Each structure stands twice: as structure tokens, then as C-alpha cells.
């Protein structure tokens, strides 16, 4: 077979290609200009050195604008840098958890995910790319730092002189020793989900005439998975899936599944004719939101409820949970489940990457974050579809003996039962988006100082301080230390408030204030979270002088 010519194309470094653990995110217009993407990809291969030579890698993304052109650039660079085989999702599609699943299933060296997650897409919106390693986990800082280093000196692009590959049909195309295999983006992932869940059990629920669900793909990538899974496999009527045709610009929407941005679903679920179950996923399919009939489940409660029911309702967990984990600002409902089950519960900094080591070491089965991320150790990314199927498994299990037309146990009942058993952790997050950076940094500094001088027993209104600190995490597996992860004031009854600055914003600063209060008394668990938390919210705002520092007297988003 003819050998492939590798062209050495001169290039010059482009500033600002610093890569975080969510990869590199910029405006799509920036990425699609000149060698911007090619420089970064070449730098990744330079950082990997010989590691990826002769290996197989995976490529896919959330279907946003520029993914198709980007795929061709990446394929040529992969070939030019000695990769032996690329598995590509058809049409360049792979939701983030599916990409993680494909890397694992195909024993690939790693993979590229083209996505800017929940950020809007289109020529004037965002684009992004990240690299995941062989267990399907996002690349660690060591490698992202190395990539950044190479972006500052890159001078040659090694590009194979091969034609564009047709990504619209599955099959293998060979160019000399290099091969591209276009794969069905659903297949490997579906196979894995079938190993995790009892599809017959879920089908028994979704095919009943008296149960209705609505899944909103928000015009993003989970649209490609919704029909094959919910309709074709699980017997739900096609009308159960809405906005399920992936669009390059997500139909102009902001595909972030929360009460603000998933407003279409929220309207339906909080109406007189609401379905029994509602769910949405984000742009790349790793986040999720769970709703019942006129009921919202906080992500902190969701992961706790899934964990509490996992062994009974989900075959993958039938021999028990290895451990649980949540990010620090996530409410501690999960800790109570862990205590009940007698398993370890880890409190990690914000960011999914901290769960990977625990999973690889066999110490964490289920984990979640307040930022609408829920998942398990079947992959190394958070998994929106998994969370939806986990909830459907619980609902199906609980209703398997309820005759059609009988009173179904709903999301609200399951949540309220959970609170009755474990207590309710009221939780709310206030976001102050688009603030000026300097005053926000000054506010966090001042809070840090206040926390350092605060003493056990200090009074804050009716609350008595247990401790205050700036959260620090020592990874129990590799001993690495993450400092300054959020200033928290924790009270003797377990209530707390936390302040941190978002690590994912693209301009200015976003202050996040997290408020949590525990309520064991069943008769007091039914009140609205904002009402229950009002006194503590006031104390947090007073302690932080937030209004003075930021000039804001109201948050931009409340969850
Ligand atoms: C991304 C990460 C999550 C993280 C979230 C919020 O989605 O994958 O792990 O919880 O961002 O981060 P932020 O720093 O904006 O609060
Ligand atoms: Zn995402």
C-alpha cells in the first residue's frame, strides 16, 4: 500500500493557549482561524512524545459548529504524528461520557473530545477541545501544562497529506499504515449502559401507558442518544424526547440543564399536565437535571438518592458500593447515605478530575457535584444519560408491582421518603456572574482572613461556629495537595456557607455562594429551600460584605 506523505508545515506560536483540565475553550471564530487548532493539537502530540506513536485514539464531540472541519484537521495531524488508528464517532459525534466509554472499550491510548460543554455553540459562540487518557479520564495537569509549554514554541505542523474522510458513514478507511474507523456513536456506550442497568426493568416502566416522561436534549448531542436508548431500546413513545435533533448552534440556546436555562422543560414539568418524570442534559451530555411532576431534585439530593438505592435497583452495583464521593460545596446528603451503608465518603475539590484517582483505586462507585454532575465508575466522566437511567431504574423498581392505573410512586415521593429517613440537606447556590475580578479576589482574601481568625463557638446569629477554613484536599491515592478550594464556615449543626470563585468562566469573575442547612425534623422538611435558608443566606452575605465588594445586591442565577 502507498505510504502517506507527511508535510511539515511551518507555523508560529499563538498566545493564550493555556489548557485547563476541561481542555482549551475559546470563541469558535478564534479556533477556526489559521493554525489555532492545529497548533494546539500538534503541541499535544509533542507533549505525548513517543507515547501515542503506533497507538489507537478516539475522536468525537458534541456536534457544535466547527467540529466537522476540526475533525479533519485532527485526523491529518494524528496520522502525521504516528498514530496508527483513529476511531471517530459518525458525523464526529460522541457525547463526553460515550467518548470515555469508547476509549475504555477499545483500549485506546486516549481521545479527543470536541466540546465547550454547556456553553452556547455557533460561529459567534464557543468551541473547545480536550484530551482524555486511556482510562477515559481528562488529562492531568502534568500533561496539560506540557501542552501549554509546546504551544509557546511550536514551529512545525506534521500533517499527513491525506484527503478528508467521509465521517457520515461507518466503516474503515486506510491510508498506508494509518486507518480511520468511523463508528456508531451510540453502540459502545449503549453496550456499557446495558451492562450497568436492567433494561427490561426500565422498559417495564417506560412502556406503561400510565407513565410519562420528557427528556429534553436541548438541541445538543444527547439528541443522538435519546431515541436509540429511550424509544428503540426502552419502549418510550417518540414524543418522550424533545429537542432531540442535534444542531450545530443548539438552536441558539444555552444547553445547560438547570432551572434557568432548561426553561422549556421546567415550564412543562411545573404545569397542571406535567409528566411523571423530566430530565435534561447539557451540550456534551455529561450534566443532568432531574425533575418530577411539579418537583425539582437538587443535584446534591439526586446523587444521594441514587447511591441509597443503587444496590437494590441497579445490577452493576449489586455486590455493593466501594465508596462514595462529592465535591466540597455539594450538600452532605451523600455523607449520610455513606454512613448508613458503612462505606467511605470522600469530599473533593470542585471538578470531576478528583474522582478519577478514587475510582481507579477501587474506592469510589458513585459520585456527584452540585453543578448538575452525577456519575459512577463505569466511565471517568460525569454522565447525564447514566443519571437519567439511574432514576428510571429506581422508579421502575418502586413501581414494578403497581398495576396500570394504580397510584405510582413518583420522584417527589421517593425524595421525601429519602429525607424522612436521612434528614433533608437544604441547599442553594447563588451565582454572581460577570463581576470585576479584583474586588472579587479581595473579597475572598478578606473571607480567608476572617476564617483564619474565627474561633470555635463564635456566634453567627443563632448559629454557633464549629470551624472555618479555606478547603484543602490531599488526594488519598497520590498524595497531591489542592489548596485554596473555597472558604467555608461550618456550624455545629452541620449548616454551612461557602464562597469560591468559579474556575470555568470565560471573562471577569463569577462568585459562587453555597448555603446548606440540615433538617432532621420531618415536619419541617417540606418548606421551600429559599425560605428555610433565608437566615443563613443573610449571615453569609453580611460576613462576606459581598454587596460592598461586588456592587451586586442580587445574584444572576439561583439554583
Ligand atoms: C465543570 C466541571 C465540574 C465543575 C463545574 C463547575 O463542569 O466539569 O466538575 O463542578 O465545571 O465549576 P466552577 O468552577 O464554574 O464552579
Ligand atoms: Zn458538559
TrEMBL record:
Instruction: Show the CDD domains listed in the entry.
Output: PGM1
What does this protein need as cofactor? Mg(2+)
The protein's matches in Pfam families, at most eight in alphabetical order, are given as: PGM1_C_vert_fung (PF24947), PGM_PMM_I (PF02878), PGM_PMM_II (PF02879), PGM_PMM_III (PF02880)
Q: Which residues form the signal peptide?
A: none
- BP term (GO), one: glucose metabolic process
Major place of residence: plastid
- GO MF terms held by the record: magnesium ion binding; phosphoglucomutase activity
Say if the entry is tagged with keyword Lipoprotein. no
Q: Determine if Phosphoprotein is one of this entry's keywords.
A: yes
Top-level taxon of origin: Eukaryota
Query: What are the residue boundaries of the Alpha-D-phosphohexomutase alpha/beta/alpha domain, all occurrences included?
Result: 17-154, 187-291, 300-402
Alphabetized UniProt keyword annotations: Carbohydrate metabolism, Chloroplast, Glucose metabolism, Isomerase, Magnesium, Metal-binding, Phosphoprotein, Plastid, Transit peptide
GO-annotated cellular components: chloroplast; cytosol
Subcellular location, record wording: Plastid, Chloroplast
Q: What's its EC? A: 5.4.2.2
Q: Name the reaction it catalyses.
A: alpha-D-glucose 1-phosphate = alpha-D-glucose 6-phosphate; alpha-D-glucose 1,6-bisphosphate + L-seryl-[protein] = O-phospho-L-seryl-[protein] + alpha-D-glucose 6-phosphate; O-phospho-L-seryl-[protein] + alpha-D-glucose 1-phosphate = alpha-D-glucose 1,6-bisphosphate + L-seryl-[protein]
Q: What PANTHER family does its record include?
A: PHOSPHOGLUCOMUTASE, CHLOROPLASTIC (PTHR22573:SF59), PHOSPHOHEXOMUTASE FAMILY MEMBER (PTHR22573)
Q: Which protein family is it in?
A: Belongs to the phosphohexose mutase family.
Q: What is this protein called?
A: phosphoglucomutase (alpha-D-glucose-1,6-bisphosphate-dependent)
**What is the native source organism of this protein?**
Ostreococcus tauri
Record lineage: Eukaryota, Viridiplantae, Chlorophyta, Mamiellophyceae, Mamiellales
